[in-house]
Amino acid sequence: FILQLHSNSDKGDGSVKYILTGEGAGTIFIIDDTTGDIHSTKSLDREQKTHYVLHAQAIDRRTNKPLEPESEFIIKVQDINDNAPKFTDGPYIVTVPEMSEMGTSVLQVTATDADDPTYGNSARVVYSILQGQPYFSVDPKTGVIRTALHNMDREAREHYSVVIQAKDMAGQVGGLSGSTTVNITLTDVNDNPPRFPQKHYQLYVPESAQVGSAVGKIKANDADTGSNADMKYTIINGDGSGVFSISTDKETREGILSLKKPLNYEKKRSYTLNIEGANTHLDFRFSHLGPFKDVTMLKVIVGDVDEPPLFTMPSYVMEVYENAKIGTPVGTVTAHDPDAANSLVRYFIDHNTEEDRYFTIDASTGTIKTAKIFDREETPWYNITVAASEIDNPGLVSHVPVGVRILDVNDNPPELARDYDVVVCENTKPGQVIQTITATDKDNSANGARFHFSLDEGLSLNPNFTLRNNEDNTASILTRRRRYSRTTQDIYYLPVLISDGGMPPLSSSSTLTIRVCACERDGRVRTCHAEAFLSSAGLSTGALIAILLCIVILLAIVVLFITLRRSKKEPLIISEEDVRENVVTYDDEGGGEEDTEAFDITALRNPSAAEELKYRRDVRPEVKPLSRHHPSSSLDSIDVQEFLNQRLAEADLDPSVPPYDSLQTYAYEGHRSEAGSISSLDSATTHSDQDYNYLGDWGPEFKKLAELYGEIEPERTT
């Protein structure tokens, strides 16, 4: 039961009906419509809903008309302590440095209570520690956890589990409580110095240990962790500080002892080392616990080992002259047994490479000799490997590199540095330098770096060219004439003698080929002998061959045509019948001047040659013609026209030949004119006062013509 509604209109006769509406009406709250009693049907939870708003009204049961206006009322849910405190963030993990002062704050925990903090003590929480004493404490009101002891040592205990309780009702009896766990870890600080487990150590190292190799390890213990345990090892004193070195392995924090110099049992059999291990990261708050380093003594004992022979030098360099005879001594290597036994040593060469086969060695003395004749210009240096072993123990072998330098002798004459293409211009002047030559020598600078050039003294004086030694390993070729002509001689040969400065000096002879070329005024080469035809025409060799082939084919066709034409010619047919009754047709124009078979025209060329009558050679005469004789005196005075008329009359009166027309040419010019010849063929022999210097202004195309007719002296700049 919660409450009862009552209306002044209610007479108790049941005519009034009560109606309830609002939050939870009909579900959480129900009403008796006759009496107006309101009851709850289920438990109420303040933490879910703190109050409900309802509306009540009284109506007439018969008419359902309201008897009074609707009334509003609020039902508030009163809180009771039904919720225990809770730690929403637990469990907790936290760290605190070791050796912290008492009361150092570690963590603050907070618990929440869902009850109404404004009503009673249901939500008033008090903190207490259930587990973790006497190391830690908690503030009852704030929940701050603090250290409760001085100098908590991580090395003694590192992890702690603390249980904190929160209780409502201000901690009174009957209050509800909740708890959480706080895991506390002490972090490390450098509060422990390193310590060697022993004050004295002993180490055995064989004398065969290689330089740079690790021969032992040593370690100092440090209770700290991480960077607080890092340390560095050093050798602070002792007679072995120059023979051994120590380094620190950062992973294992061990000291690695290494060998700096080779050990020799026969010279020193033990060493003493003082090794120090010290922390690298110091915390000055704990310097009073200190010093944070430790020292121990290490004794190194050297073990005796049978060692291979030892050479007196780590490497050898020897020299021998080239062209030396086979068996010439080059040098000697020496090795000895470093052990106390001092066994005899045997020498040999490892024939692993081709160079090792060029030398031999005396097994007892170690003397190296040549096995071939060397040429420095081919190979100036050889590298071989000599081995030495003990006779008593051949398995122990040591090696040493030997370099052999081949010394030079003057065995190569000098020669021209290259094939020179020497060109001289046609219009050059005497004393001009047309080429500078140099020489090379395969020998080194001590045997032939100085060259001397000269002309062959055994030959006669060269009228065309001379040579000048420049005293700087070069020579200049100079001209001795004013002009050179390609048409007269287009190539000259000049023998040159070259000698070096070696002992004894060597020399060689070379021949320079000098071409004569046409050049421009500035000295540029325009053309040389046969190249002129090709360059002027602008035709290649292939084009010239094609043109010549076409000309040959045309000549062959012409010859073939002439041959066929002559073979078709037939002699004149002289029929036995009366020529007057037959018309003979033929296609013959005569041979012209060059036809000497059909007619003899010598008489026509010179009237004085017609002393006697000459018959035609193409017709056989049957009747002798009338003979006519003229005195020689009359022939000299006969006129040409009269002579032709006579020949025409003879032809008309000759009965032995048929009448036909013949085309004849007469090359008779007549008597020489008294005026003389007007031809220009002989004009070259006469002297003319014409000035042809203006041809030099016409350009390079008329240069040759200007040189022929003018007096221009072409110049050439070298």
TrEMBL record:
<dbReference type="InterPro" id="IPR015919">
    <property type="entry name" value="Cadherin-like_sf"/>
</dbReference>
<dbReference type="GO" id="GO:0005509">
    <property type="term" value="F:calcium ion binding"/>
</dbReference>
<dbReference type="GO" id="GO:0007043">
    <property type="term" value="P:cell-cell junction assembly"/>
</dbReference>
<feature type="domain" description="Cadherin">
    <location>
        <begin position="7"/>
        <end position="87"/>
    </location>
</feature>
<dbReference type="GO" id="GO:0016477">
    <property type="term" value="P:cell migration"/>
</dbReference>
<dbReference type="GO" id="GO:0000902">
    <property type="term" value="P:cell morphogenesis"/>
</dbReference>
<keyword id="KW-0479">Metal-binding</keyword>
<keyword id="KW-0472">Membrane</keyword>
<dbReference type="GO" id="GO:0016339">
    <property type="term" value="P:calcium-dependent cell-cell adhesion via plasma membrane cell adhesion molecules"/>
</dbReference>
<dbReference type="InterPro" id="IPR000233">
    <property type="entry name" value="Cadherin_Y-type_LIR"/>
</dbReference>
<dbReference type="GO" id="GO:0007156">
    <property type="term" value="P:homophilic cell adhesion via plasma membrane adhesion molecules"/>
</dbReference>
<keyword id="KW-0130">Cell adhesion</keyword>
<dbReference type="GO" id="GO:0008013">
    <property type="term" value="F:beta-catenin binding"/>
</dbReference>
<keyword id="KW-0106">Calcium</keyword>
<keyword id="KW-0732">Signal</keyword>
<keyword id="KW-0812">Transmembrane</keyword>
<feature type="transmembrane region" description="Helical">
    <location>
        <begin position="543"/>
        <end position="564"/>
    </location>
</feature>
<dbReference type="Pfam" id="PF00028">
    <property type="entry name" value="Cadherin"/>
</dbReference>
<keyword id="KW-0677">Repeat</keyword>
<dbReference type="GO" id="GO:0016342">
    <property type="term" value="C:catenin complex"/>
</dbReference>
<dbReference type="InterPro" id="IPR002126">
    <property type="entry name" value="Cadherin-like_dom"/>
</dbReference>
<keyword id="KW-1003">Cell membrane</keyword>
<keyword id="KW-0325">Glycoprotein</keyword>
<dbReference type="GO" id="GO:0034332">
    <property type="term" value="P:adherens junction organization"/>
</dbReference>
<feature type="domain" description="Cadherin">
    <location>
        <begin position="416"/>
        <end position="533"/>
    </location>
</feature>
<dbReference type="InterPro" id="IPR039808">
    <property type="entry name" value="Cadherin"/>
</dbReference>
<dbReference type="GO" id="GO:0045296">
    <property type="term" value="F:cadherin binding"/>
</dbReference>
<feature type="domain" description="Cadherin">
    <location>
        <begin position="312"/>
        <end position="416"/>
    </location>
</feature>
<dbReference type="InterPro" id="IPR020894">
    <property type="entry name" value="Cadherin_CS"/>
</dbReference>
<dbReference type="Pfam" id="PF01049">
    <property type="entry name" value="CADH_Y-type_LIR"/>
</dbReference>
<keyword id="KW-1133">Transmembrane helix</keyword>
<dbReference type="GO" id="GO:0044331">
    <property type="term" value="P:cell-cell adhesion mediated by cadherin"/>
</dbReference>
<dbReference type="GO" id="GO:0005912">
    <property type="term" value="C:adherens junction"/>
</dbReference>
<feature type="domain" description="Cadherin">
    <location>
        <begin position="88"/>
        <end position="196"/>
    </location>
</feature>
<protein>
    <submittedName>
        <fullName>CAD18 protein</fullName>
    </submittedName>
</protein>
<feature type="domain" description="Cadherin">
    <location>
        <begin position="197"/>
        <end position="311"/>
    </location>
</feature>
<dbReference type="InterPro" id="IPR027397">
    <property type="entry name" value="Catenin-bd_sf"/>
</dbReference>
<comment type="function">
    <text>Cadherins are calcium-dependent cell adhesion proteins.</text>
</comment>
<keyword id="KW-0165">Cleavage on pair of basic residues</keyword>
